[in-house]
């Protein structure tokens, strides 16, 4: 740093200016503001804790106005050219017990109606705090059930007992938790014998990881089914697992960092070595497990 031309001090030609106050736009400005903000809180006796005391919050805002040139504008209405409107999540359900009873009955119905698994799984997530919107969703499911009373799994006798599995996942479907919902369907001789639709317990960082978890659950179910058929002395063809994600299909070669995913890799690798694992070119819209 040098003194600007035309403003060089003849007595101190090698001296430069010292910044006594953080200016807006400099790299030091956030640090200077944080230090001043922290020292102000510490002077009031605050520590790193959580709380929702409204009276203390009002006192703190009053001290803010005396310390800093700020004012409370109330609720946010405009921000960076965006207009903000506040809405509620829906009125609480008038009869939560009835909501739980209906959802429980629908869960029992999914034993013979796999097409309801995803919708019932979704409304089952709000048993503790259901709203009128959730109750309307349950009514829509009941309307669908009433119009499809004749629907259900059909079992036919095939020429061969081939075991075929489909797995798919809806990546980061949940808006609140960003957890994925996976599903699989397993057919024995062309007949649907096992299916599932559940929300994954952790938040995946990529669609590949989410698909791989779904494949591991489907592979574990296929392995259990083959062991059951073996114990019953029923001959069958080698099981096949279909997925629609090329990254997940080739991911056994990837070294994941967590033990949980390493276990999933071992399950998929074991299934691939014993049976048949393939990447289906079917679109997700036509994949049965979707």
Tell me the strand order in the biggest sheet: 5-4-3-6-7
Residues in helix, %: 25-40%
Would you identify the CATH H-level superfamily of the domain at 163-279? Ribonuclease H-like superfamily/Ribonuclease H
CATH topology of the domain at 163-279: Nucleotidyltransferase, domain 5
| Main sheet characteristics | 5 strands, mixed
The helix tally amounts to 8
Mean pLDDT score: 78
Radius of gyration: 30 Å
Note poorly predicted spans. 252-258, 279-287
Q: Quick one: CATH class of the domain at 163-279?
A: Alpha Beta
SS-based class: alpha/beta
Give the amount of beta strand, in percent. 5-15%
Shape: elongated
- SSE arrangement, N to C: HHEEHHHEEEHEHHE
Tally of strands: 7
> Separation of termini?
63 Å
Please give the CATH architecture of the domain at 163-279.
2-Layer Sandwich
Pfam family, one: RVT_2
Domain Reverse transcriptase Ty1/copia-type: 1-46
Transmembrane segments: 31-48, 256-277
Keywords: Membrane, Transmembrane, Transmembrane helix
Describe the structure.
The chain is of the alpha/beta class and 290 residues long. It has a domain at 163-279: Nucleotidyltransferase, domain 5 (2-Layer Sandwich). It is 39% helix and 13% strand. It has helices spanning 29-43, 54-67, 96-109, 117-123, 132-147, 207-231, 246-250, 259-274, and strands at residues 78-79, 82-83, 163-170, 181-188, 191-199, 240-243, 276-279. The strands form two sheets. The protein has a five-stranded mixed β-sheet with strand order 5-4-3-6-7. The radius of gyration is 30 Å and the shape is elongated. Mean pLDDT is 78; it is low at 252-258 and 279-287.
